[in-house]
Every structure is written in structure tokens, then in C-alpha cells.
Amino acid sequence: MEASKQERRRKLRDIKRFNNKKYKELAKKKRQHIPESAYLTQMRDPNNLLEIDDLHTFFYTDTGTVKAIDGVSFDIPRGKVVGVVGESGCGKSVTSLSIMRILQEPQGQIAGGQIRYNQAAQNRALDLTKVPLKMMEKLRGGDISMIFQEPMTTLNPVFTIGQQLDEAIKYHTEKLSKKEIAARSVEMLKMVGIANAEGVYKMYPHELSGGMRQRVVIAMVLACHPQLIIADEPTTALDVTIQAQILDLLRHLKNQINASIMLITHDLGVVAETADYVVVMYAGRIVEKGTVQEIFHNPSHPYTLGLMKSRPNFVGENDRLYSIPGSVPNPIDLPNYCFFRNRCEKACAACAGTYPEMISLSDTHKVACYLYQDAQKRKEGE
Length: 382
Ligand SMILES: Nc1ncnc2c1ncn2[C@@H]1O[C@H](COP(=O)(O)OP(=O)(O)O)[C@@H](O)[C@H]1O
Ligand SMILES: [Mg+2]
What we know:
alpha/beta; Rossmann fold; 13 strands; 22% strand; binds adenosine-5'-diphosphate; binds magnesium ion
């Protein structure tokens, strides 16, 4: 009895020490001075709000290095919606966590690449992988906001909707009286399509349905006037009709506020009507990207074709819903050939070769697949 008590005490003490150490390390990291030259950078194209360039994000675990993001590059132009699609485990969320710098440290680390953010208001570009944590905290919420799958990640259950919305508005706008702030909050609730806005203002989150909560979250995000909104599966937890309403809302708001949206989803159907550009991810890499027309009229990578085929509204030969056989591999020690090869219907002899290069089908349409190597060669021969 005594021994186990002592052991428990020792364990608790160890945990306390460990937490203290971690806290001190974090505090030190926050205080650390990083010179401007380390994080100021140049945009490749000033029309882009964000340029992700050869990003690598790894998790160092007991079982090996998880290469969750392994050389991902894509742009988010100003005022556009970029859809990021792929099955569960492809690295979509880790991409957004890398942008926000909220990775689970110290296991999770950005191991390479740049994330260039165009902070036009201050006439400069920042490499988000390098900016000091203090600066990142300011950017979060203000410049870059996130909508999570589960609205309660953002909402606090012990405060009313009004209190939380007021707080967000107070933090991000110039001096307003209490009355003016409340009026602004109600206005925001109306803007996101809440009919009984005055009533909802006084309610607690638990009194609302999932769809209503997600609307409130969107109102809070808008109150911060972000330049970039990252929405990670914002409708996955909702039922289908509500899903469509929330997507309608995002589309509608996009035109009103001129922010860029990065819309993450496992469902290609969701991006079809919402996105301007589409990025298809597989096992931590981009297998295809292009404009929404290119991806939907000329889907080229067999993985994209598989995702298309598994959309519920696809009219197939039989009534059963199609799903791509097999599953996404865990990105530890992946072989140096196409990661999709083992699941691919169109795999050929060439696919045994090294991981395929990105091939340009047009200025905007790129695909990493051996099936299009001839097209590339023809283009080079021209
Ligand atoms: N904290 C973590 N530790 C180890 N591996 C992780 C961690 N978070 C994510 N991963 C791995 O990174 C890969 C990508 O995950 P994620 O970005 O969440 O996928 P999704 O596309 O479903 O959002 C997965 O293989 C996942 O197991
Ligand atoms: Mg995810």
C-alpha cells in the first residue's frame, strides 16, 4: 500500500516537472528574438494571398517519422476559394495546422519549405514557418481565421452567443459603445442567416442545433475581418440539407467580404460548386491540381477519377456506391514509387519507377502520374 502511494507521488512529481519544463521551453521560445530578415520574404505573384512552397511537415514518433506533408506546393489567390480534397489521412488538416502554426509540438515540426503570406495592409510578405510565435498569435484570428468541423471547438459552453460575439467584435474593431457592439453582433447573426437573431444573441451554445452553431462560428470569424479563412470540413458534422445551406452561406459571403477561403473536405461534391481551384492530396503529396473546371471536366489522376466515382450523386452502372479499394497508407517509410500504385486501376509498367514528377497539362492543371508522361514529352518537343 505504502509503496504504491509513494510510486504515485513520484509519478505525479515527474509529470509536474515535465510540464514545467515544457512550459518554460515554450515561454523561452516565445521570448526568443527572431530578426525580421529571418521571416520577411517576397511573394512570387502579388495577386496571391498565400503561397505554400515545398512544405514538409513531419511527426517524429516512436514508430518512425510520419511524413504527413511531404513537399506540398500550391497558391491561394486573393478573393478565391481553394478546395483541398482527399480521403481521411491524406494530410489536409496537417496542412492547415502548419499554416496556423498550431501543430502538436515537439513531435510535429515543419521540416522544410515556406508558407508566404501576403500582408498587403503592411506592404510586406511573411514566411509563416519562421515568424515569431508572438506575431503568429496576432495573425491568428485577425489575418487568418479557422472554422473547425466541430463548432464547439470554437464556442465556449459557459458564455452566451452574444457575449462571445461581442468579445470578438470588441477585440477586432475600434472603440464602440456597448450598445453599438451588441447591435453589430445582432447584425452579424442576421448576415449569416439566423432569423431570430435577437433571441439567439441571448442563448447559450447548447440551446442551438449543430447548423446554427456553425453559423455562429462563421459570424465570429467574419467579425475578425480575416484575409484568409481556413474551413476544415466545416459541414462534415452536419446533415445533408444543413450542409448545403452552410456551403451556400460561405459562397455568398465570399463575394461580400473579398477574403480567400481554403476549403478542406473529403467530398469532391462539396468543392464542385464552391471552389475556384482544387488541390487533390494523397498520402502527404499533391497528385493533381487545377481550376475547378479542369478538375471536373478533365479529371486526370486515377485517384481523382476514383474520388469522382465515389461521389454519392454519380450515376454508375450499378446502384452500389463505389469506393476506391484499399486505404490511404500511413506515411511512414513510404516506398519511392507512386504512393497510389497499389490501389490504382490504371497502373502500368512505368509505375514501378521512381515517384512521378508533376506534369503540366496546362498552365494551371498539373498531375503527378506516368499516364501523362507522353503528353509532357510532346509538349517539350513542340
Ligand atoms: N499528432 C500526430 N502524430 C502523429 N501522426 C499524425 C499526427 N497528426 C496527424 N498525423 C498523421 O498525419 C497524416 C495526415 O493527417 P491529417 O492531416 O489529419 O489527415 P486528413 O487529410 O484526414 O485531415 C495521417 O497519417 C495522420 O496519422
Ligand atoms: Mg482532417
